[in-house]
């Protein structure tokens, strides 16, 4: 394991999507320039996705590459493009940009301080908030988690009983144990550093948050057989009384 | 329908067979028609504890394989009325037990008997899983020491996940804790876990506490279930456990340190 060398993580970035409606490049460029002039800080090196799905005519590779070059000239960082799944052009792999999947995303129109110029109907700029916080339902366990058993929760985990020695409970979110924790508890297993573990009686073999763990030897010196919470502060585990 | 009771533990040598023999006998003494099945195929012991090893002709595996009928294989106990034994095969291994075969035998026994006591082998593999799969009630036999308690915890997890009741979403198996080889003197000296410790870790209701006793070893070697020894504390403790299993209330006995009398102290007993 080379945990010190690198780490793979999922991440969400807010991007701008340029929906092309006509192949009229000059007009698009002019319109874009005007939009950018309204909020230049916002567009400076903004990640941009070009969406050719709604274009009235098929887009050729030539046209696409000119459009990309034009966007870059205006200080936008083109990171990929999109089209509808049924109409993927033959030059897909020649354009040297990734074809991104269509997201079912919410759309927010930017409101500029001055009324939007109505003279250019060809370009619509939308910011698409890609951040989709899908809340996972809390998993509730009412029976003891016995030795050898493993419980995984994609969200928070609540155990209204004990977790025996040799048992393991894992959650992508927080873990609450309203009984003795004698086994292993791992919260934030997908990297959520804000996850915590709460238990009524700390006798754990191991506790971990987002990969940072502590064994019972160390725990015994801090809080043992008492109510405790485990949290991550500056990449170090902290055990606090409850 | 008969009630199927599994006597199980995970760990070996904690007293499953002794407890199966005692509890099965106790139920029969109370007038319930009972059969004890030895699931420890390949390591047949129950017949020795019950004192009927010389009467084994056909066994459990023969019945599963339809090489013998149930009535041919069942051994009627000579001391206790209403008590029967279905011995294990000594020459086969646990693979001889199939779910369908075991189910067929249990269904047939259910017609005639009130209680079927399954004496589980040690471990958590096929033999132990077969013994507990069809159970309605589990008696988890535990010695007051950490490894036995942990193995019992493991078996409790298997009862909740790999039994027929768990797989078919029926009401869960009724779980009972039986603490065996309990020595109050050693508990008070901190050499052994107390009943309270074991109960706290396993979190299931207590059926009984059987004190460590020479009478158990003596009874095993003589082939007499210890419950028939009314003088021995272990025998009385098993009687109490059977009464509790049948829903009666009995105070816990033999769990406190016995105060030595003047003469005992004087003579160093």
From TrEMBL, chain B:
UniProt xrefs under InterPro entries: CobQ/CobB/MinD/ParA_Nub-bd_dom, MinD, MinD_FleN, P-loop_NTPase, ParA/MinD_ATPase
Protein name per Swiss-Prot or TrEMBL: Septum site-determining protein MinD
Keywords per UniProt: ATP-binding, Cell cycle, Cell division, Nucleotide-binding, Septation
Organism of this sequence: Marinomonas gallaica
Family: Belongs to the ParA family. MinD subfamily.
Lineage: Bacteria, Pseudomonadati, Pseudomonadota, Gammaproteobacteria, Oceanospirillales
Gene3D superfamilies: P-loop containing nucleotide triphosphate hydrolases (3.40.50.300)
Listed GO CC annotations: cytoplasmic side of plasma membrane; cytosol
N-terminal signal peptide: none
Function, as annotated: ATPase required for the correct placement of the division site. Cell division inhibitors MinC and MinD act in concert to form an inhibitor capable of blocking formation of the polar Z ring septums. Rapidly oscillates between the poles of the cell to destabilize FtsZ filaments that have formed before they mature into polar Z rings.
GO MF annotation, one: ATP binding
Subunit comment: Interacts with MinC and FtsZ.
Keyword Ribosomal protein in record: no
The gene coding this protein: minD_2
